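Supplementary Methods S3. Complex input for the glutamic acid-bound model.
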Amino acid sequence: MNKTKQIVQNSLDALMKDDTFIPELTGETRAQAFTSLASILSTPNHVHKSFLRIPLENGQVVRIPAYRVQHNNALGPYKGGIRFHETVNEDEVINLASLMTLKNALHDVPFGGGKGGLVINPRTLSEKELHLICKKYVRYFSDSLGPDKDIPAPDVGSGEREMDWMMAEYKSIRPGTPYRGSFTGKSVVNGGSLGRREATGKGVYFTFRYLFHDFLQNQKSLLTKTDNSYAKTVAEFENKPMKLAIQGFGNVGSIAALEAYQCTFLQNKVVAVSDRNVTLYNEDGLNIPSLVKYTKDNKGDLPVSAEELAVAGVKADVLNREDILYLNVDSLILAALEDQIRTDNMEKIKAPIIVEGANAPVTKDADEYLSQKGVIIIPDILANAGGVIVSYLEWLQGRETQFYSEEEVFSQLFKKMKGTLDSILPVFFGDSFTLRQNCYIQSVTRLSTVLYRQGKLY
Ligand code: GLU
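Predicted complex, serialized as structure tokens:
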């Protein structure tokens, strides 16, 4: 059983014993309803797979495996990104789609969960080839997609350009539909939302800041009243300078780094950042704005040598890219890919706080090991929901053709995330579950209640 399925099952076990949860379900009927819930939540509704036929510019024809998984739509149309990466596979897309169901349920976003994937390395393809791949993806899956059915968005390896191409293709295949709502994460000129690009990274940093600043300031008494070991860890950081390391310097990591650098609520020092090539380390803190500028001018890559650091105007030691994980820091923000902390490297982790900016960066065994050691892991479905929350705002704006200012978008984003954090954190510090387990319990409660009321459990 993978981590997602296991924690969903644990959440159901906890709810089964909680007699305030759907109290009218008792005895044998209750047991049956929970068995139904377990099978509904652990299985995707649909797994679509195609092999796209793509003529490359060199004249060769290749078949590209493409997926769209629709996990669950009890709360609204399926929603989730399309990953462009050579390691994409069916199990991974199914797992990521189920995480989207849980993420949307947790934050009360009226969408279900879906995910797509293309087994390609976009860096090795020309713009023309990528354009064709995007158009074919929409053509092959067009019957399953749509603004009220299934709404894709960017994920690892895809962005505004790809969403613009896909929306344009959808518009020509389905003339007359409210096409702006068929894809989110589009460019602003094409009906995208201001702030969508920064939303995930801003949300990731916001959850971290909220826990160590806003929550600590307003609800500190909750931390001192309990003997919960996680509460003690948080309380120890009150007004203390914090050293941060951020793995991944793409759309999520670079924005989270910038937010941390500019934050006036906490005394942060971003001492390390990394990408697919290097880790850069400076114990006095890195100049993040200069690094952001450098990556913009250099196809997204961080400087890797003394010469390149001089061009960037940044002082740092150059380490191996995995070194970022093992540094002596207070918080490690994981904003690269999944499975970064595993059984083979979990014992080397020193950070007492981990924030999951990426989806599933900590494996099941590593999650159990670190949580038992008292490490606070702010889980993916809580921390990285900023993207899908602003996708929802983009979808709404596209429907109304009324567009919000950037200020309005961020204020709605933070309001939504604050609402979730306010409902989860007091429970987390008062019970014996991890933050991830508490988030799953909240998501599963919402999904289960809706499924029960829709008459789907018998
Ligand atoms: N790919 C992002 C995620 O994993 C965003 C999904 C969306 O906006 O639909 O949450």
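The two ends are 25 Å apart (CA to CA). Residues 196-224 form the longest helix (29 residues).
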